[in-house]
# Entry
Amino acid sequence: MSSKGTALLAWVFFVHLTAIYLYTRGFLLTRLSLSEISSCPDGECTLQPTYKRAVVLIIDSLRFDFLTPDPPHPPSPHHHNVLTFPQELTASLPEHSLIFDAFSDPPTTTLQRIKGLTTGSLPTFVDMGSNFGGASIVEDSLLSQLRDAGKKVAFMGDDTWTTVFTADMFAPGLCFPYDSFNVEDLHTVDEGVIRHLFPLLSNDSAPWDVIIGHFLGVDHVGHRIGPDHPTMRAKLTQMDDVLRQVVSFLQDDTLLVVLGDHGMDRRGDHGGDGVLETSSGLWIYSKKPLTRGIAAIPPAFRHTRIFPDASVPHRSVQQIDLVPSLALLLGIPIPYNNLGMVIPELFSHDTRAETLGKALELNAQQVRLYLDTYRSSASGGELDSAWDEMQAQWAAVQAASTSEARWLAIEGYTRIALSACRSLWAQFNVTLIGLGLTLLGVGAMAGYVLFIKFGELHDDWIDWAGTMRWTCMWGMAVGSVAGFTLYFPLRSHLKGVDALDCVLFGAPLVSSLAVIATARPASFFFRPSSFSLPLLLHTLAFASNSFTIWEDHVVTFLLLSSAVPGALAGFAAPTARLRWRILGFSALFAACVRLMAISTVCREEQHPYCHATFFASASLPAPPLPMLICAVPSALVLPYAVRRILRISKSDNGLAAIMLPWLLPAVLLQGCAFWILEHLETSEVFGPGYEWILRPGRTLLARCAMGSVILFGVAVWWQVPLCLAISSSAKNDETKDAPANVDSDGKPKTQVTILGFANAFGSSYLILWCLVLGFLYPATQLTGQVVLGLAMIAMLAHVEVTDSVRDVRALEAAFASSTPSSALDADTKRGTTVTFAEIVPVALLALHAFHGTGHQSTIPSIQWKSAFVLTSSLTYPFSPALVVLNAFGPQFLMAFAAPLLALWNVAPLPQPTAGVGVGGGAVRAGLGMMLYHSTLLFGSAVSSAWLRRHLMVWKVFAPRYMSAAASLVAVDLAIVVGVGIGVPRITGQRPLPKSLSFSPPPVARSMPTSNLQLPHLVSFCKSFELRTHRQCRSVSAASRKWALDCNFLDEDERRALPGLQLGLLASLCYPTCDVAQLLLITQFLVVLFHWGDRSPVSTPAAFDHVWLRLSRSLPPYWQARFQRHLAAYRAAAVLVARDNANAVVPDLESYISLRQDSSGVKMLFDLTEYAEDLRISDAVFKMPVLGQLRSNACNIVAWSYVCVCIPHAAHSPALTWDPQDIAAYARKHASGDTHNLIVVLMAERRLPLQGAMQAAGTLVKETVATFLENERFLSDSSADVRRYIQGLRDVIVGSTYWLYETDRFFGDSGDEVRELGWVFLPPS
# Structure
């Protein structure tokens, strides 16, 4: 019985697959690659080499704004002005260093960009699919030209290069590839490149001519956690350090090229043609001048464009322009298929730009030769539309009378050629497109015929389905023979079509026509109605790029609209119970749909009218905080909600009592825990040293979740799928018929009670559906998991509404009949025919779940993280399968639920009639789902074919077609599996003989954590009273205005000034002075802090202004004392700089002495006299006990700064002003920063970092105790001395608390660090 219906569904699936195959082959063909090679033994087709060697470093996903000195507004602290070395060299050596905004042709995937960067040609859209597997480059390229010229190429980095180029392209022993697809590994590839790069650069005799290094860390950070994350800053800082070292090794005859193969979108992904994805950085540097005659270059050559949200235009080029430029600079021929134009600045070596003229001539001749060859090929007709224009422009080149006019004509010719070929980057085979569309249309019609026929046959479908199965098979056989036979006489007219294509077209076409002819239903013609209107509108929407772009909103509207008829039926329900049931579940359905719609990811075209909520932000692909909070509760609530709905029909027994309370929550929690641990690892919440436990731990959780679903859940369900509870008892009825309760022997009769019998089919299939959800759950990110839970509740609500509406229809039919009493049996006599109106919400819910789980019909929305759910590295076939499961699992899940429309609340009696009826209903439900999605595919395919020359075809229409095709495959597969395997297993069962028992799993233990412990500085100051000035806010605002008006600060310092909280520092340290004094002190602090950032040796004008006002009211001895402290501050800075230059680490005693002066704290103590109007004479000031007290206070304040510098890089994007930056300890110590208390303690006492931190804290604590001890000796001093000591106390406690309030050290996490006392170290 089941095999006959399944065979028809499988046949429909086959028709869809062949239609997709033929259409896709016609729509997404690769371009024609010419096999010719550029060669000129006499050297006439190239220039004399300008450079003997070249170093080409590719920083994957290096977007242009990562390089530019003029980033967008507002700049990101995580990726703007971090990789600054190219900016610095370009500003100081403009003739040696050039930065370009390079346009990367889409698709912006690494493999395609490697092809473009080496051949100068254009990639194709379908080539993107080979990004997982690679495809050899057989056309002429830079590497083949270098090999033919006898030059040796060394390579290290992304192994994609070794998949597209043969081994003979690289020098023996100088090829070091690394796995490129493990996006969770941020460092291995980069460290491998560094490990092999520098030995080659430092060895002048190393056997290489060109080095190619491909770094992947920036790209992997973008994919994993997005560009707006501290990890991106750390990675770009590493790249900046690498470039600095590379430049230090460069010889005068070596050219350095640094570029990104593409950019990345706001979330860190790429693959499409968005402006952020196609904008890549390009930096070219040489120790000898790159350009001298730039003035001779016509301004028309120097194209510029403005990066999004930026205000300054930048020099822009095509990325493939690098190919002819590199070839001529190295003295090799330009690759044959190149369409790029030389970059003029690189050939302006003389004031008359003669070299540029020769380079342009060679470039134009190469492009001309390529076009002539292409024109004479079999595909040459594709250039017809642009050929006349190109010929006219070439004539203009020949006719030009001046050098400049000829150059401009050459540029026009090359750009016209590029534009024409770019429009032809994917060829269309209209014949194959037509064949595919024909099959899609005829197949949809055949599916509609089958759907209608199953509705007419009701329970009599089995024999008819068996006959139709043979009709399909004979039709396929006849069609195959006809297709193969007709191919040979027609092959001269079938361009690009082979015999296999004809067979694949003929078999489904003839069989579809046979089905339409033999299964013609009584009501054949499709009449538009309110039930089919959503499908009609949805299909027509694909003719508009706007509706296609906003399809997620369209689906939400259609989905809510499709539920209106059911809700209206509730108002007319004849009983209150049905009325409230329909209206209640309709409201639940609408609420779930609206909540799902909150989760969005935005297409580029939807900005600025769309706000991404699936992730924490559009540029941070982490789960939002509400989802982190709701993930675990939703994983627990969902099984309870399912069981609560089953309890309505008493079906929460048997297998449901095992799966729902135990297995399903365990699986969902494990899937949820996987992504929580992924977030903790990615965000380094516990610090960078926990990957060793977090990565294996979450992998184990995912494997346990998916494994338990398959090995336990499905296995148990297969053995005992029913959700029934059976009990027996002696029949005891105290009525007049009581004698009937005993048998002939006088023994009581047994009464058997079966709970859940009325929904035996539906509840069992629901458990199987829950297992499918459990398998999908770990592959879906946290927000998507919540959305899937809402989709499941919405689906069950829709099923309940559908069941109730059927009850209403049955009652209405009974009341309208001649025997109204039949309403008493309406539940058993109602029809179970699935209507298309009932299927439409399920089909739309599949697409709504697709959008709600963070997907769009665009390449960048692919969630690559899911590839590493089961493994920590790229593993075939699991990684690609998980990406597919993540992207199209929602469609599979919702399609798998379609049989519930036929199975829900149907009692398994009488047998076998009940099983036959629900089996036919399940087949009809599956056909309806297939029909809806195949019609959508047909509409999308027609629109894509009709608009194939539309400007938005590759941005909107082609991706939507591919998404529709993949969705249809997922839906068809789910229907075949669900109807072909799940339904027959249920309908062939008998009630459970006894109940099952199951023990709950043990409770998981929590994992311990550890972090770098900081000294608890606040507790050291518990003996000091914290006070603050009442005018803190007004003085802070006034001081900021003063700082901005005096033009002392640069732009970065101006932006960072409010976060410094210097007004708060002054208010805490000098809480009793008057407002004018507090304002002047705050202004001094502004000058002092930024003065220390620069050069303390030179005196800024702003200091003179402050000093003039200070000195007016203070005695000469105070002024002389302050000047001595200022001079000591400057002298200490010189000594620190000298020791850093000589890599001298001072001993602890020397460091302590010098730190008192270099910190500038003595001047802060001098300001205490000014703030309190004290008169401390030199004699009193030099008192030994007071001097010791002052020294204690100075050490406390200076060392406290050192003890808190470590966390700022992990918590705050701002740059620290203090030189004692422990967070950058490894980097700064390596570059000579030796005056650091932690460095001194580690060197002198042989301590690790944590030990040195603890030792520094101990020093501060002991010094506070010494301060308090010395203070007792001065308890009987004069009033001025006691007030001076109180001022010292105020500075100590005020500066300590300020450390946690300013954003320079802890960013927004100061309160947390002050309370908890630990921080996270960034990765080394």
